[in-house]
Amino acid sequence: QCSVSITAACTGNPESSVESLYCDVALSWWCGPEPTGSWRHACKSASHSALGPGTHRCASASVLCWGAGRRHLAQTPQMSTSLPPRVCVARSLVFGRQLDIHSGGADLAFPHHENEIAQCEAFHQCRQWGNYFLHSGHLHVKGKEEKMSKSLKNYITIKDFLKTSPPDVFRLFCMRSSYRSAIDYSDGTMLEAKQLLLAAAAFVEDARAYMKGQLVCGPIRDDVLWERLCHTKDAVKAALADDFDTPTAVDAVMDLVHHGNRQLKAHAKEPGGPRSPAVFGSIVSYIEQFFETVGISLADRQSVSGDSSQATLHSVVEELVRFRLQVRQFALATGAATREARRQQQLDRQPLLEACDALRRDLIAHGISIKDRSSTSTWELLDQRTGDQRPGS
After folding, report:
1. Which of 68, 91, 163, 210 gets the highest tally of CB atoms within 10 A of its CB?
2. Is 281 exposed, middle or buried (0-12, 13-18, 19+ CB in 10 A)?
3. DSSP character string of 218-259
4. Number of helices and strands (H, E) in the chain?
């Protein structure tokens, strides 16, 4: 339980290189129990080995080019005995003499992270303490220059955000900008992220319906889709390897969704033509894997947990949708009747179709959406906070 105060040290030669500037890690004890064990050993080691050979302490911090400045990690009265100060010595006890990745806000690059580097490289006597520093941009309220901050009282709490949008929408919103860049929060940008997520979820649902034979479309150019899938995998891998370029990766996946939708929307000239479920199975698997990797789930919205009440609800909705489908198919069937007879049948059965449509509208209020396809009907749960399809439910 100690804090580290930094005293500048230099070689005395004003023309010397930056590498000749070192930190003297001196201990300043705070009001609390005497440090014991590894804490005491680490702190003593820090004070004895921080300076390299041939260096000496400066008489005053004023001789340095940047002046006395402020103490970086000194103990402050606000820090109680129950909350030890954040010191590089403590971090070293956990992670050792080297870090793979150190993250933080862009405003911490200097002097905060530069100070950490100076302390830790002096303490460990190494030339590279952190391998990679990831400096993230700030979240701004659109139209304002300052970042979203509690101190400025211009922030939105997570609790309030979740009242209108699911967390997956915010994740995709963040992925649409480079982690290094500042990003504007607004209703418009959140709506764009929500629409992209819904488009991906809707494609997955349609693709599954096609694989089950529930969706009829024209002949599928599976060679084009296989090539597009291969191209997307390469593009996503290259984007993520290029400084975590998530916007490009998301664009590549959504482009794959676009090409898949174009094939599914093609009208069939003749029913019962050849089908290509394998390529759509591979595309769906890849898209779901991509989103799950970044914490976004596009799982089947009809899936339920092991809870018995949920399983009962699933069975009831299945039976209701099946009964409605039978009524709707009867209302649409005309058989081999003459034109005049078909017209009369349509007039007589129109109330049945209207009742089916009314049932579909009524179920939306209860969080259930029914989609009528060519020869069948499917259903899904909705996010009752927004009335949209709920990815991952």
Report:
1. 210
2. middle
3. S---HHHHHHHHHHHHHHHHHHHHTT--HHHHHHHHHHHHHH
4. 11, 10
Phi, psi of 347 (to 5 degrees): -65, -40
- Biggest CA–CA distance in the chain, Å, is 108
- pLDDT score, position 95: 83
Half-sphere exposure of 195 (CA within 13 A, CB side): 6
338's tokens: 């003459």
Question: Domains in the chain, start-ordered, CATH in brackets?
Answer: 75-136 (no CATH), 158-294 (1.10.730.10), 307-381 (no CATH)
DSSP for 38-88, written as a single string: HHHHHHHHHHHHSSPTT-EE-S-GGGSTT-S---SS---TTS-TTS----H
Helical packing angle, 246-264 and 277-293, nearest 10°: 150
Question: What is the predicted pLDDT for the residue at 70?
Answer: 43
Cα gap 87→73, rounded to integer Å: 7
Report residue 185: phi and psi, to 5°. -95, 125
Q: Average the pLDDT over 383-390 and give the result.
A: 52
The label of the residue with tokens 């701004």 reads: 140
